[in-house]
Amino acid sequence: MHTRSLKLLAATLPLAASLSFAQTPTLRAGAAMVDITPKPTDLTVKTDSIRDHLFVRAIVVASGETCAAIVAMDQGAVRLDAYTAAVPKVAAATGCPASNILISATHTHSGSTNGLSGNPGTQTIVDAIVKSATDAKAKLAPATVGYGRTTVDLNVNRDLFNSKLEWRQEPNPQGVSDKTLSVVEFIGADFVPIAVYINYAMHPINFYLSGVISADFPGEASRALESHFDGKTVALFTQGTSGDQNPALKENFLSSTRNGAENFTEKIGAPPPPPPSAAPGFNAATANSGMKEVAAENLAGYHRAIDRVSADVTMMGTLLAEKTLYLMRHDIHPTANARIWGGQSDFTCPGRDRQDRENPVRENAMPPYKDGADVNLKVSLLRIGDIYVTGVNGEVYTNIGLKLKQYAPASKVIISTLTNGGANSGYIYSDDAYSHLSFQVIGSRLKPGCAEDKIVDAAISLMKKSGE
């Protein structure tokens, strides 16, 4: 089957691309990537390890007298200071307007030497963003662009109100999920992809607090596509509306094994252990700083747990890559002519601050709040032909994205979260989720009733403006 599919790809891609290149081509594209993996000497704990490399990847696309830069990096977030420093440098290096630049994070939770805030540092990231965009601009060549989408059943809602009437961050198969995999391809005149842009909504948390540096499944998906085309293609991954989405097929033992739990074989159907009588609240900074060396007697079990998780991560990334290839072979109809337009909208929503910061309750309780500083939100839009990539600078809940897709005056809509800086909000929950006593909702700085409508309205307004 695989050989037959490859023959079909070889037969169909030239035909589709040749039809597109028969037009007078106006579109050009280039892509590049820069390694930002920490050095082994940067690891802060002796038993920590580097599973795979981290990259900043960039696509520059030009049409007529304007261009756009799309950047994705294997990091937990786009630090606001890095975004602010990088954008004017990217604009100067590429000639693309700042409004035409999208910088996103894959949201891997294992992309630094200290949880989400170690090496690579801000300057390393800024330099890599600028270099990847500069190198991509230098490689501009005639290209076609096309869009496709399919569904992939890998994610699951993680806001669960369980049978004990408790709110927990656990799989909720009855909860809402957007299982759309969106793909944008940029095909060169030699019929080989210059770049592939993929978007899916699922938290890359498989190696969180494990001591393992990894780009998680987004990195696996990118590498699988790049390897498939013999290193001639750069594949970018961005997050969809994953604020309430986890992997459905997630191993649960790695972090506990790493932190000294007894090595054990999973018991199916056994009653769970009783919760501690006075469980401390969860503080991410404390959890990251408290990482210790794995004891010698636990190392064998720890490495087995890493292998199990690694197999799952490879499976997730490979499936996303294979579904992407299917779309490229059979469903995407590219064009060599596409107008480029970019715009941004900045606005605020009322904020709140928790008053239990010293020992914050994790979930299943309403913490005390006080009025806080306004939350700064940014919606970005990059239009390439009839493809609309909408960026939001935070972790967005599914129903916000579904609402935008429902009311958008277009069908080829991609929602790229964690894009163009970081909002001072925490999670951006949907209006229907305001009463969830989940980790994400109670930890958000947003007061209910503002963000959803403002994000949707801003995105639709930009879409309409792009057609003027």
From TrEMBL:
Zinc among keywords: yes
Catalytic activity: an N-acylsphing-4-enine + H2O = sphing-4-enine + a fatty acid
Record-listed Zn(2+) binding positions: 107, 203
Enzyme class: hydrolase
Listed Basic and acidic residues bias regions: 351-361
Keywords: Hydrolase, Lipid metabolism, Metal-binding, Signal, Sphingolipid metabolism, Zinc
Residue ranges constituting the Neutral/alkaline non-lysosomal ceramidase N-terminal domain according to the UniProt record: 46-253
Listed GO CC annotations: extracellular region; membrane
Cofactor note: Binds 1 zinc ion per subunit.
Molecular function GO labels: metal ion binding; N-acylsphingosine amidohydrolase activity
Record-level GO BP terms: ceramide catabolic process; long-chain fatty acid biosynthetic process; sphingosine biosynthetic process
Cleaved signal peptide residues: 1-22
InterPro entries per UniProt: Ceramidase_alk, NEUT/ALK_ceramidase_N
Residue span of region Disordered: 347-369
Cofactor or coenzyme needed: Zn(2+)
Record-stated family: Belongs to the neutral ceramidase family.
Name this protein carries in UniProt: Neutral ceramidase
Species this chain originates from: Terriglobus roseus
